[in-house]
Amino acid sequence: MKDAGSASTVVERDGKQKSGSSSLNRYNAIAKRFSGFALISGIGWCLDFLTMATLTQSGLPVFWANFIGAFCGVTFVFFVAGKHIFEKAGNRSTTVLLALYWIWQLVAVTAASALTAGLSWALMSLLVTVDGTAFVAGLGLKPVTLCGVTAKMLVTPFTLVANFFFMRFLLEHRKSD
């Protein structure tokens, strides 16, 4: 018998798999896939982030800059993660799946953009209260840009997890990992 600490080899004396080891294997498989998804999403987030920062610095309101940047990023993630992380179930059209994903993103990005804009406003109020706007402006950034991208960083972990589970739901049939 192999090392009893290994999740894939934990067995009772009668040879049956110990309760919990299959759920540990499932958890490990999901965690591994999530890590790959997070890496791909990180690249998409950089695309999103740079687009948002550029648009905000150019004068577009945080809500719209985040909205446009996010759609650039999520479209990238859909194609790359769809190919490398998720196993497309059945023969459903990529166009239909992308349309469904964009509908999900329309709702999710709108909510995230509103939350980002609200958080940005709160951070901007705090920055004004501590007289930090002149310092930020001295760095060559508009204070609203700094507050907007900071707010985006705070919202991102929640959108990452939600997008992973939605893509998994959308692209794969229920199966054990």
UniProtKB/TrEMBL annotation:
The chain crosses the membrane at residues 34-56, 62-82, 94-115, 153-171. Keywords: Membrane, Transmembrane, Transmembrane helix. Residues 37-170 form the GtrA/DPMS transmembrane domain. It is a multi-pass membrane protein. Pfam families: GtrA_DPMS_TM. It is found in: Membrane. GO terms for cellular component: membrane. One of its GO terms (biological process) is polysaccharide biosynthetic process. Residues 1-22 are annotated as: Disordered. Coiled coil: none annotated. It comes from the Bacteria. This is GtrA-like protein.
